[in-house]
């Protein structure tokens, strides 16, 4: 019996990945023949795609600010050169054999709210240009409800548990859990698949995350901070 979804940012592990209905992978880490093998075993592959941050070399679409956790440069989402760059990445992933795309770094409503319309345009362009079997959005709550018309599923990353300083994992404080619950209730009213991705390092915290996700109609996957665990 297969499990619903996995997020894995390593390479290989085809046999273990075959145990999932959907897997989110780094597009550069897998060859077309490996993707074909997974498809033949009934696993739908989604290639990772960042829409508002760029880890590449300096480029004209970069903002001066960088993500303090992962180092990528924030971008001007509406810059036509960035749009063209992202669309090319999306086309390459689909052409390589990925059946869909995982759209990351969508939560810019607090940092660059003026870019939200550009982000919606970019997601719509990805859908039209590549015709993927499945689009999964990570958060993007500032884009609701329009986002639900453009994607097939929404992921609530770090819904119940998170990585904290010094390499520890812990549940969110009660006040944050309440805020997340209110967002989850809003998501339940939309016509999209719902997933949760939580971070934990012990059985108790894993069980808490999975149980809470089920309460809000989400299929849950639990891993470490760098998604190296299946």
Automatic annotation (TrEMBL):
InterPro entries: Aldolase_TIM, GH. Gene3D superfamilies: Aldolase class I. This is Glycoside-hydrolase family GH114 TIM-barrel domain-containing protein.
């Amino acid at each position: 019996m297969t499990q619903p979804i996995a997020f894995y940012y390593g390479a290989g592990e085809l046999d273990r990945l075959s145990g999932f209905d959907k897997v989110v992978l780094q597009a550069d880490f897998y060859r077309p023949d490996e993707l074909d093998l997974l498809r033949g075993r009934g696993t739908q592959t989604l290639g990772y795609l960042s829409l508002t941050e760029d880890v590449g070399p300096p480029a004209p679409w970069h903002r001066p600010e960088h993500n303090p956790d992962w180092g990528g440069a924030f971008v001007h989402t509406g810059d036509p050169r960035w749009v063209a760059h992202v669309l090319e990445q999306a086309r390459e992933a689909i052409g390589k054999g990925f059946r869909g795309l995982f759209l990351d770094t969508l939560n810019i409503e607090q940092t660059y709210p003026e870019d939200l319309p550009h982000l919606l345009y970019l997601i719509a362009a990805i859908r039209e240009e590549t015709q993927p079997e499945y689009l999964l959005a990570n958060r993007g709550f500032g884009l609701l409800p329009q986002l639900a018309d453009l994607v097939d599923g929404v992921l609530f990353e770090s819904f119940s548990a998170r990585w904290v300083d010094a390499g520890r994992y812990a549940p969110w404080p009660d006040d944050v859990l309440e805020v997340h619950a209110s967002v989850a209730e809003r998501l339940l009213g939309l016509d999209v698949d719902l997933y949760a991705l939580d971070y934990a390092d012990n059985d108790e915290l894993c069980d808490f995350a999975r149980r809470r996700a089920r309460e809000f109609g989400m299929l849950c996957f639990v891993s470490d901070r760098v998604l190296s665990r299946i």
